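dude i think i finally got it to work??
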Amino acid sequence: MNLALWLQRTATDHPDRPALFLGRDQIATYGEFYHRAAQIAAEILARGAVPGDRIAIYLKNCPDYLIIQYGIWLAGLAVVPINAKLHAREVAFIIQNAGTLMCFTDQDMEDPLLIAGVTGDVIEVPSDAYQAMFDNVPLADPVARGDDDLAWLFYTSGTTGKPKGVIITHGMLTAMTDAYMIDADTASAEDAVLYAAPMSHGAGIYNMLHVRIGARHICPPSGGFDAVEIFDLARHFGRVQLFAAPTMVKRMTAVAKSTGETGAGLRSVVYAGGPMYVADIIEAVDHFGDIFIQIYGQGECPMSITALSRQDVSDRSHPRWRERLGSVGRAQSVVEVRIGDDGGAPLPNGESGEIMVRGQTVMPGYWKNPRATAKTVVDGWLRTGDVGVMDDDGYVTLQDRSKDMIISGGSNIYPREVEEVLLTHDTVIEASVVGRPNAEWGEDVVAFVVTEGALDRAALDAHCLDQIARFKRPKTYYPLKELPKNNYGKVLKTTLRKLLKDMK
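look at this
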């Protein structure tokens, strides 16, 4: 099924329902949203595109992003979403690898793309060429697509090399949307979704859910994350759902506590995309209440490996509530999840191994990369590369990426465990732990920390020794003004390792 049918149905049943907003200003009703998308679809097909072709969207968050996306789908084509913060050369690689026919981009991005060697149609939004698309007779109906047809060609962040294109189909996104309503949260037409994180990633991939139910879509005028702006828009619209990286949640809590904001109008905050430390989410729930839901997924299984419900996030009555809060929840309805050994064989509950997932939302493979596909999807099971453990109730605790695990003196040390302890110290704002080569022990544990005031190494040492085994204690602490992060808010441990190497 073509996902654009959801927009067509909502527009047919509720043409006057408010749909797209820029800040507080309404840009389009659902009827207007569908009409404009169908006009773009007609233009794309008139330029010779055929079903299955790829069209890139390299835009900052804006209402036109959704109009273009659904225009592409209505035409039977696939979207290639590209983070607007990427360098033009990175964008050029994605566009060339995907073989896109067109690229919709912002006015200030076109020249860098051309300099980087991007060929084909590059269309500025807004521009006369873009506005001319709305002179077309709209496409009458969505081009038929099957569940196995490509809908969204998502490129991984590429922190360890060139990014790989993940094939995400219409069927995968349909199942992902169903799983959200079953396992994570409910939603209704009275809700609003606020796009404060990149629409090219987790925030944007949930738009289908809200189109299907006819909810409002709000793009902040800033085009990105601003905690004060989020609180203002939430108060104005009410019943706001927000996708946020854990670092965004932490920042929202800090701003709210310093300004007296209560988060009025926020109905649900879905957090994902990196480790949420227990101390941070406890502080957030204490301030905002039971509005938080955790999702664990990957581009290769978008947003749908496990979920930790708002009840689990907020519960303090269960005897193991803190352990559950430190987990990423239980398997979502459309997948199976297990912990596997190095060969992929299942391990008993309580033993650490690689998190593996199989089901309707697992990718069929990487775009034009059969070798990487064969290594990642084995007998239908996605090898996530994440190390975790499952308890007897099915809760999965994510320990670390397998490549981030530190082996010192023959013992496995999971950086996240050490980071969790450091973050409970009153002076520590952020912490990231990595391994440093040691000729005798294999690796040493070292920590990069952001603190309030001067770094007190002795105090951090004593704090760690009070809570974890001595061999897990960092041997060195390096102060930073902020941790390096990618465009999605994930801490770049590759950059930290390079810093270590350069210090020699």
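The chain has two domains: 4-321, 405-502.
im so relieved honestly
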